[in-house]
Write a structure and sequence with these properties.
single chain, 152 residues, alpha/beta, five-stranded parallel β-sheet, 7 helices, lyase, Methylglyoxal synthase, Methylglyoxal_synth_AS, MGS-like_dom
Length: 152
């Protein structure tokens, strides 16, 4: 499949996700970086989104809880080019019942070539990048052309 470009706007659409054992860590990270995150559109899976919104005052669009379909909702938003960045504090030491959904979410983020942070350090690097505060062109699959060629 060919690639095309997509422009990530200055104000990003950022998904915030955390496994249960990492929610406190994501909360502390979000509180520390609330001013950086405030101008952006924030999304989160249910429990995480409600916790972050309540504790930080940030406006966050909460989806379903991850195990109830929230990971899949985020994946669909990524495929629809409505999420620009994924910050997912996951627990590599404990298997979750929805691990296949988590793997699918990480796969779709990779397919659509969005920046992904999986811990505090990588999230800090994303926020500290000069690219965070500007428009950025990224390469993505040219699915529309692929469909036109397959159907002609």
């Amino acid at each position: 499949m060919r690639n095309t470009q997509r422009t990530l706007a200055i104000h990003k659409h950022i998904a915030l996700v955390a496994h249960d054992s990492c929610k406190q860590s994501l909360l502390e990270w979000t509180q520390k970086h609330a001013e950086y995150l405030k101008p952006h559109k924030l999304y989160a899976t249910g429990t995480t989104g409600n916790l972050l919104s309540k504790e930080t005052g940030l406006e966050i669009k909460s989806l379903l809880s991850g195990p109830m379909g929230g990971d899949q909702q985020l994946g669909a938003l990524i495929a629809d080019k409505k999420i620009d960045m994924l910050i997912f504090f996951w627990d590599p030491m404990n298997a979750a019942p929805h691990d296949p959904d988590v793997k699918a979410l990480m796969r779709i983020a990779t397919v659509w070539n969005i920046p992904v942070a999986i811990n505090q350090t990588s999230a800090n690097f994303l926020l500290a990048s000069t690219l965070f505060g500007q428009e950025v062109d990224i390469e993505i699959p040219d699915y529309e052309t692929y469909l036109r060629e397959r159907l002609s």
